[in-house]
Amino acid sequence: MKHLLDIDHLSLSGPPHPLYAEIRRREPVSWQEMPGVGGYWAVMRHADVVTVSKAPELYSAQAKGMQLEDFTDQLPPLLSLDPPRHTEQRTRVLHAFAPRVVRRLEPRIRDVVRQTLERCASLRECDLVMDVARPLPLAIICDLLGGPDEDREKVGDWADRLAGAADPELSRGLDSGTQSALAFGAYAFELANRVEGASSASSDSL
Asked: Cis peptide leading into 135, omega within 30 of 0?
């Protein structure tokens, strides 16, 4: 295992929990070298993670703290922002995930789960991520945005490329994330204009 995020090792053997326990005991904060990228600090104990998360002036997510590679040409996601920008943007969407909103979505969530499992049961084989884990959040996010069902795959493709900018299987060049962000932004404006004045909960949640 080359470092703690060695995908080749994790995909074959799974998380090495005994090794993690040993590192937490022996060296709870350690530098993990990654050839060709540089590296990252692995913070392994809960108390230390809490300390880091509450001190953005010392441990910045914005100053290249969230991504192992330099993607300065791309628009920063929420997790790559420090307060006060992070707080401002998070506050704008927080109401859409309030408990009362989630409770109202429960019947729809159950329906999507049922449809997903029924579809997978009819297949000879399926991909757990693409056929099971992916459809549910994608359907609910499109519902929150007020987007039609036929737009799901398009939104999902943008989300994949935004989240996987450093993954060669998902990205399509170094500017892939920025292009997806711009395309999604244009879609959001178009959607907002389309549903302007609508009174349904999904039309203005986000």
From this structure: no
The sign of the CA dihedral 38, 43, 48, 51 is: positive
Percent of the chain topping pLDDT 90 = 25
50-81 per-residue burial string, b: 16 or more CB within 10 A, e: under 16: eebeeebeeeebeeeeebeeebeebebbeebb
**Distance between CA 2 and CA 20 in Å, rounded?**
14
Tokens 């790559």 sit on residue: 80
User: pLDDT tens-digit profile of 112-166?
Assistant: 999 999 999 999 999 998 899 988 889 988 888 888 889 999 998 888 877 766 5
CA angle 149–164–3, rounded 5-degree value: 145
pLDDT band at 201 (very low <50, low <70, confident <90, very high): very low
For 26-51, what is the mean pLDDT? 89
The distance in angstroms from the start CA to the end CA of the chain is 42
Q: Model's pTM, two decimal places?
A: 0.61
Burial of 166 from C-beta contacts in 10 A (0-12 / 13-18 / 19+): middle
Q: How far is CA 151 from CA 3, 156, 160, 203, in A?
A: 39, 9, 14, 15
Cα–Cα distance between 108 and 118 in angstroms, integer? 15
Report the alpha-carbon angle 82-74-153, nearest 5.
Answer: 105
Q: How far are the Cα atoms of 142, 159, 166, 178 from residue 171, in angstroms, in the given order?
A: 22, 11, 7, 11
